[in-house]
Amino acid sequence: MITRKESTFNCQLPVDELNREATPFYYYDMDVLHATLGAIKQETEGWPYVVQYAIKANGNPLILKEIASSGLGSDLVSGGEILAALEAGFQAQEMSYSGVGKTDREIKLGLEKEIGCFNVESIPELEVINQLAGEAGKTARIAIRVNPDIDAHTHKYITTGTADNKFGIPVEALESVFNQAIAMPNIDLRGLHFHIGSQITTMRPYVMLCERINQLQDDYEARGIGFDIINVGGGLGIDYTHPDDCPVPDFKQYFDVFKQHLELRPNQQLHFELGRAIVGQCGTLISRVTYVKENRNKKFVILDAGMTDLIRPALYGARHEVQNLTSVEDGREHYDIVGPVCESSDVFASDCVLPVTRRGDLIAIRSAGAYGESMASRYNMRELPRSHFSH
Predict the structure, then answer these.
(1) Which of 21, 81, 90, 349 is least enclosed, having the fewest CB within 10 Å?
(2) What is the per-residue pLDDT across 66-118, written as a single tens digit (0 to 9) for each?
(3) Where are the beta strands (DSSP E) in 87-227?
């Protein structure tokens, strides 16, 4: 599981600098991002591992360029992400395209750009890719996404690997899918793809995944079917409670699970699709207190940021550490931290203990680098949040 550890660098927010900016905005600590990318490189060097950044976590162009320049590949779920990844400098041959609802236009774009792999989620999708590849005079490289029926015990909205989820092909249907793929003239079956969920903070689900993959490889190797690529997806969680103590996830523990438990064949590559673990801790939503309101039972800190800027708490009750960066008052109070949007779900935190808070105080909502800016909307015709980067 995620454990607290001492930070190897100072990741405290530069309050004076942030206080001069118009709020709300996302602040990105590039030292944290660089340290995270460095830790991934250190733990994968010398192994046949390919780490692909899941662009859905954060598509800010400057973030994408930093990650692309580090040598990572990219994991994509839309045609727009394909174009953004290419613009940022990601290599087409190191792209994997996932998603249950790829449109014809998006598939054609992937074929035109000659991306590395389509992660296929159904027989109808396989048939369409084969048809469109034939019409384009190309061969589509694919991996079959397997639903391994493993419950990672995360929130139901971010669980993807059980039999009740819409993702992937059940194990019992694989042989039929393999036979069809191998027989198709415009399909090159390269691998198996898995993804069991998100914000996974214990390693047991990954051990179970390794065991399931080992069994599948043994079974299909005996039938003469082998794979060049095994893709285990992503899902590694971050510490939302102690962002300063744990700014970089424990990548050693994570990658060691696969080194110790997954039986790769000679010349096989192991692909990872990490998103939140790469960018989650480098981003903070900075907001300002508009009002402090008190009713019969509660005190509310009302921010100028809302669920349009960071929807995770409203969407599935996600918890983020909330900090008052500028309070000069003695004592502490219990507050509900809320936004201005006309929805009762526009709540960042309930019964949150902060220093005594006043109008104009600067508030930081931490660990917001993943699924924050990328999920922002213009509901209520609000402006999209800006972004600000550490020097």
Answers:
(1) 21
(2) 999 999 999 999 999 999 999 999 999 999 999 999 999 999 999 999 999 99
(3) 95-97, 117-120, 140-147, 169-170, 187-193
| CA angle 156–161–167, rounded 5-degree value | 95
Angle between helices 123-136 and 174-183 (to 10 degrees): 10
Burial of residue 135 (number of CB atoms within 10 Å: 0-12, 13-18, 19+): exposed
Contact 271, 230 (CB under 8 A): yes
DSSP string, 24-51: SEEEE-HHHHHHHHHHHHHHHTTSSEEE
CB neighbour burial string for 303-323, b if at least 16 within 10 angstroms, e if fewer: bbbbbbbbbbbbeeebebbbb
For tokens 């600098």, the residue is 17
* Structural domain boundaries in the chain: 30-279, 281-389
Query: For residue 2, how far is the Cα from the chain centroid?
Result: 17
Domain at 30-279, CATH class: alpha beta
Q: What's the CA gap between 82 and 85, in Å, rounded?
A: 5
Q: Which two tokens stand for residue 346?
A: 């526009």
Give the right CATH number for 281-389 from 2.40.30.170, 2.40.37.10, 3.90.150.10, 3.10.20.310. 2.40.37.10
Q: Summarize pLDDT for 259-278 with one digit per residue, the tens.
A: 999 999 999 999 999 999 99
Query: How are beta strands 25-28 and 73-76 bridged, if at all?
Result: unpaired
Cβ neighbours of 275 (radius 10 Å): 24
